[in-house]
Specification:
This protein has 374 residues and is α/β, with parallel strands linked by helices. It has 11 helices and 10 strands. It has a 5-stranded parallel β-sheet with strand order 3-4-2-5-6, sandwiched between helices. Strands 1-10-7 form a 3-stranded antiparallel β-sheet. The relative contact order is 0.13.
Length: 374
Amino acid sequence: PPHTSPMNMIIPNAKQIKAKSRMLRKLSCVAGLMAALVLIQNQSANLMRRELSSYQTCDITTISLPTQPIIPIFAASYPGSGAQMAHYLYEALTGLEAGDEWLHRGDTYDHVTIKTHFPARTHEIEGHRLMQRVILLLRNPLHSIPSYHNYIYEKDHHLPDHSVQAPVEAWLEWRDEHFDEEIQSWKNHLLHWMSEFEMKNRLVVSYERLVSDKMGPVESTRIANFLGRTKGVEVVPPSHVPCVWDKVVNYKRVEVDEEGNEIDEDDERKLAESELTRFRLLYDEHGKQLSGNNKLKKKAVVRRRVKWVSHEHPDHPEHSKREGHKKYKFTKRQLDMIRSTLNMLRGKFLGEYTLVVILSGYIEQIDEELKEAK
């Protein structure tokens, strides 16, 4: 073998030096990545601890009157789209009462939002001429139309809300008689609210995202930011939004009196109707009070008190769902009509990114139903 000097054995050549340098750089990069990963994990842990802490500490048990006149926001939705849940969310995010088109006016200026199904249903909010903003809540007609039928069935049979699912036979009969009218109504409802308000005065949200564990807090944050733009309205801190969302979506809200005793639906309705006259403040378009109790002008008055029932409680919705788990189907012709309606709306509002994403998701669901229909 060729002779190798001790010097050659001890001193590495240039190739070896470069290889060692590359290895050191790689080790340095790996160490840096590991350090960054540890930092990210620590930050995630801290964020999770902060979120869990806020979940445990947010207090949304009181609903008060505003300390100054506020112009309400339209809370618009087609029937069967989760309007009541959204109604509770608006109250929880602001601590102020949200109104209903059948009970409240737009010109008392003491509600953060007022719920309406117009024009899907003909009743309009009275005194709404200064209301210039809207939250449009959407739900796939594949689910909102059957949900609306369930509501009608319960009312026709004098049953409590969300207590039973209508028999399939009742659904089929109602569906075939009313479907064409209702899908047209769903479309016209969306067209009305999208066309009447500029983008800056309109917030589009979806029921599906609102009840999603992943997107629910995000949608709630968007809603809080929109509500907070109303003069005289303060929303909960951003860190509390996940907690508020969790309470509203995953717990059942129960009305209570000043002593903490539960109030049933009849007493709750009577209380709401009596307080319409007891606390009503009327203002002109310049914000000048026309009538009402002057003592309320500078002090927040607790309007109602509520508590939130946990999953383990027998009154939680998980334990009191509508009886049965029926899946209400549509005919292929009806599915095609829903799809063409959604596709037309998506094409009409291509510049509305959020709406396009929502409608595209709905179309995907319809396509899955069409595959099954074949």
